[in-house]
Design brief:
This protein has two domains: 314 residues, Outer membrane efflux proteins (OEP) (Up-down Bundle); 68 residues. About 2% of the residues have low confidence. Helix 2 crosses helix 4, helix 4 packs antiparallel against helix 5 and helix 4 runs antiparallel to helix 9. The chain has a four-stranded antiparallel sheet with strand order 2-3-5-6, with no helix packed on it. The chain is built from nine helices and six strands; from the N terminus they run αβααββααβααββαα. A hairpin with a 5-residue loop joins strand 2 and strand 3. It is elongated, with a radius of gyration of 40 Å. It is of the alpha+beta class.
Length: 435
Amino acid sequence: MKNLKSIVLLAIFFPLVGVSQEKMSVEDAISLALKNNFDIQLAENSILQAENNKSIYNTGFLPIATASADGRYSTSNAKIIDQQGNERSIDAVETKGYGGSVGLNYILFNGGARKYNYDKLKNLYALSSLQRKTQIENTLIEVYTTFYNVARNQEQLKTVEEAFQISKERLERVSAQQKFGQQTTLDVLNAKVDANKDSINLLNVAVLVENNMRNLNYLLGRDINTAFDAQADVVLAEELSYLELKEQLKTNNNELKQIEINQSISQQDLRINQAGWLPSVSTNVSYGLNYSDNGPAGFLAEQQTTGINAGINLSWNIFDGGATKVRVQNAKIAMKTQGLNQQKIQLNLENQLAKFWAEYNTQKAIIENEKINVEISNLNFLKSKELFNLGRVSSLDFRQAQLNLINTKLNLLNAQYNAKIAELQLKKFAGLLNN
């Protein structure tokens, strides 16, 4: 009995660390996740980077402006011999000067690579946006699933706690009846074992509640030890059509949309690499100032130049050792790979949709059957309890009636939550979860 009491205390108080707990609805959980979830925040940062990358400042469409300046100074000893052979020495000859220039460089044409690269950057931004939506969907389905698991576990906890209370009452009754010779020692031992089993079940479910609470708190981006009471009414959608879901998957699913963008990116990579076979034309213009003080040893005492320089440059990499050819070939292979990926993902998504559709309908059928079973099991249990109290039913028969009621209640509970989670998965694949 001492071990039994210690297990009971652990089972009852382990999940209830706080005196009071906040009440949380599934809408509350979703709101917190959208605000605080780390994966969603990381996806937001990826979008900001992609937005910066597609800026005109990162495209090569703007000219490059440069400015430079320099200053010079030197001192030296000079020995000068003129054409007539006259020699003259000058010590500590100083020369100095300065200069500066400003210029513009602009690529007029580079085989179209600049335009294709800009289109690619815009597609990468669109891809990041879809990846963010996909991350939100994945986070939402995790939050939904974990939230409903908490709610399921809390309902399970109530059921097994009720079962334990009944087992305790049975143990007390059988122990009292043994004193008057109405029950045997074996009946008491069986009642103790059953009560002990129920207390262990209570402890196991309490641990599940705690673990799933921590998992949900992590997804919500808050202290993992925050206790709460999950308020969940499991209501299934009135109308779901498999054919409609399948059509919505083809048009709304974010994974398929990402594949389409990746195909466009592969086409742009091909064109970027093909541009390596074409010439590049660039132009430059600059204005410069240069001044020199050549000192007494120079032919010219001082010199200053100013002016504009302009030019145009044509370059054509006629043969680069075959590097461009290899890049073009690989880009074509990448395009074929994207096509295969599209077929693969399309088939996989349709397979997942069919699997969850079957799960959804199976669980709905189980719900209807288990409702009947719970009703029958409850009537059977109440009758068995009445007869047990009158001494007309054995302790083992009463226990069996109790187990039947517990199992049918838990089966109904599981079917309801499994059906809801399957419904949410269907909506996710059809691109409807964010709605």
